[in-house]
Amino acid sequence: MTSTLTYHHLPQIDSPEDLRALSVEQLGAVCDDIRRFIIEVISSNSGHLGASLGAVEIAVALHYVFNTPDDRVIWDVGHQAYAHKILTGRKSDFHNNRKYKGISGFPKMTESAYDAFGTGHASTAISAALGMAIADVLDGNTDRHNIAVVGDGSMTGGMAFEAMNHAGELKPNMLIILNDNGISIDKGVGAFKEYLLSITTSTTYNRFKNKVWNYMMRRKSRYGKNTIAITRQLTRGLKSSVTGFSNLFEALNWRYFGPVDGHDIKTMVNILQAMKKIPGTKILHLVTKKGKGLTLAEENPISYHAPDKFDMTTGCILEKTTGDMPAKYQDVFGHTIVELARQNPKIIGITPAMPTGCSLNIMMQELPDRAFDVGIAEQHAVTFSAGLAAAGKIPFCNIYSSFMQRSYDQVIHDVALQKLPVVFCLDRAGLVGEDGPTHHGAFDLAYFRSIPNITIAAPMNEVELRNMMFTAQTGKHGAFSIRYPRGRGVLSEWKQPFEELPVGKGRKLRDGDKIAIVSIGHPGNFAAAACEELEQKNIAVAHYDMRFLKPIDEELLHEICKKYTTIITVEDGTIIGGLGSAVMEFSVKNEYHAKIFRLGIPDEFIEQGTLNQLHKDCGFDKEGIIKIINLCL
User: Would you state the pLDDT for residue 231?
Assistant: First the structure.
């Protein structure tokens, strides 16, 4: 990629060693270079913009002060780590960020020695850093630093508090950088956000803390090596009296420092150099601005979390020509749940920190008392939904498929075991594209199919999604999972009257001769297109849309297995345990002898790329289906 901008120091920086050769006074210019570079690249190559712009000074300060990669830095969540990637040998590859066969959009251990831990999901870094710190203790390594950079609302996740509680007992040498920008992907929620706000906005506390800190940090201070300990004692007492709270972090045996301006690079360097000398568990609270350096991103952090292409000078997002393109499944969900909720007062909407991404924000605007963002807390979202259901409500719990993995026990123990009518809407099911293996929703069909008392459905189009939501909200079928992909459907008109579907019943879409395709969900459209193309060549292939994986339509499977000698299953999920496995189990159980070929996501983690590229690689796009049919003829 040829740059159109002039950079001062960035061309000479290919590693943290190069960065450390500069003076502290030059670091501000380095941050400006990195920020411009991120804006330039992401303006034409969509990525996670806002969070990484806000964390530039943090990355520079950490790599300048600490001896990385021997000292370990773990980024939680990983989408704030672009400056880190640029500083650690991936600057020349950054234009391939999130692209097919390019570098990952998240830290990845196999990509760089500087990526101490892979972090695509939130709230994991403190646990990982604690494990590494304890390993150092066991190995007798007392010099290494383990640092977790926790940002974009990750501290609201229960895992973060579990890890802090454990670390506070063990007290290894580790540091948390709390990157407090007051927002995750959407606006921050919860009491913890208000607690941080009470600290950062107290003028009395901050004025006194700054005076004390500046005085104590003077070189000629008579307090010498006790400087930080004395500062801590003074500010801790004041903090309690000003905010009305005892310090939460101190209560968990973490030494708390802050709040500090997370864009003041010189101050951060000085503080981090001082904190290196303090053993045990420490937390530095930094206040940053998501989208820093791009005015529109600062003013609209939700829209610029991961924007489409934009003008790198003005920041204006470039308009796409959409014409009569079908609606996104997410928007169909968002409008449909509002429509259903107006008819059924029992319906409640829940999401763990993804209201805009999953379009529950539409319900939050229209019916704010009946829609809840619970923060980055998937386990709580599921059991909160179970409590609502136990009290007579019909909760629609919308969680991305890959994030639902985090609340598997709650689905089993709190919902399915008790036969509660919670409706799980699994957004981003199947391959999701450029976010890669941490976000592909590959496993929900398989991991839900093994759970009793749960209905599993997947719509082939937008009308089917609406009808499945309508069927689920009757509350007659217990726990009910509806999975659908990221992006657009296939219909130009989807606002049709609701129809209650017969649960566990599929449908025959096309008759054929010797070969039948059995599909579930959106990939049925690839199968339908393949059948249409083959029909033009006088090749008749049958096509069945199962609609439900559980209970599966055994009557329809008997028809298929008796009539066709070859069956091809098509699904956007792992082929182990999903639709293909279910059809094979049925065939063996009933002693049928048809040849069964399974198309889906293979038994491996799929890297990032466009959906078209990934569907092709996995072999269940239209061309892949035609190829396997030709081999069977």
Answer: 53
